[in-house]
């Protein structure tokens, strides 16, 4: 399960402090040391850890007394609040264009789960928001990617727009949007090309699509199993494209949690969804508070 190591370590530390009727500065110091080590071990970015620990210390030592909680419980509440804030605080909503269709551009490296997530997101929009999306195959470099999206469309019984591998991705996207207007599709989800690494050609192509299509959302899909690499990838995509949100995939695996805990702080862009498995219904809206509760037990 995701976060197992982190949860184990933090829960041990928390048990020690929860029951305390009095919490000394020394107790807080010991607790924050344990939290710091647990976060670093979970591959959380070290700058992020440093800032988080400073905030926990400041609040835990100088906190206002709340009658309903023991001092130990109050310290834990501070840790939970700060972990929640770190992951973005409030749950973040998906955009709706003033005039349909709302256009979402999916970007990310190959293998992160971009195409699968395109299908999952379409399914989510239909099931939870009663929407009627059109999927668009803009990865002209891999015929297999187009085929994969078409297969997902068949499984979901949803339309897929493709012009094969010969057309230009900007043209494909524009024609798809025109088609969505004609057919009354209220969302257009564009599956773009991925590469093995961040490179200039990829970014240029994505920038061209962005400039022309002016999407309402640009979701970066990253694999949570890749830890700090996922954070670095998010940083470069954000610099080049000014993404609007992140989808973290493979949170059902035994990821240590570093990406989930660092991405918002490093990019200042919210995690909007979490992929919890390979199936098309295994996408969840990302709730920072629930995730913090899961980690702290
Ligand atoms: P793309 O190259 O980024 O389009 O990646 P794909 O959508 O083809 O996904 C790559 C692999 O990751 C596939 O085997 C997917 O089934 C798998 N995958 C995607 N999302 C998840 C997830 O949330 N959990 C798990 N366990 N596997 C996932």
TrEMBL record:
All copies of the SRP54-type proteins GTP-binding domain together span 270-283
Key words, A-Z: Cytoplasm, GTP-binding, Hydrolase, Nucleotide-binding, Ribonucleoprotein, RNA-binding, Signal recognition particle
| Main localization of the protein described in the UniProt heading | cytoplasm
Name the Enzyme Commission number(s) assigned to this protein.
Answer: 3.6.5.4
Q: Quote the subcellular location field of this record.
A: Cytoplasm
Q: Which residues bind GTP?
A: 108-115, 191-195, 249-252
Query: Which branch of life, at top level?
Result: Bacteria
Which spans are transmembrane here?
A: none
Tell me the leader sequence span.
none
- Class in the EC hierarchy, top level: hydrolase
Q: Which reaction does it catalyse?
A: GTP + H2O = GDP + phosphate + H(+)
Summarizing the function annotation, the protein's role is: Involved in targeting and insertion of nascent membrane proteins into the cytoplasmic membrane. Binds to the hydrophobic signal sequence of the ribosome-nascent chain (RNC) as it emerges from the ribosomes. The SRP-RNC complex is then targeted to the cytoplasmic membrane where it interacts with the SRP receptor FtsY.
Record comment regarding domains: Composed of three domains: the N-terminal N domain, which is responsible for interactions with the ribosome, the central G domain, which binds GTP, and the C-terminal M domain, which binds the RNA and the signal sequence of the RNC.
Q: How does it assemble?
A: Part of the signal recognition particle protein translocation system, which is composed of SRP and FtsY.
Homology family: Belongs to the GTP-binding SRP family. SRP54 subfamily.
Q: What is this protein called?
A: Signal recognition particle protein
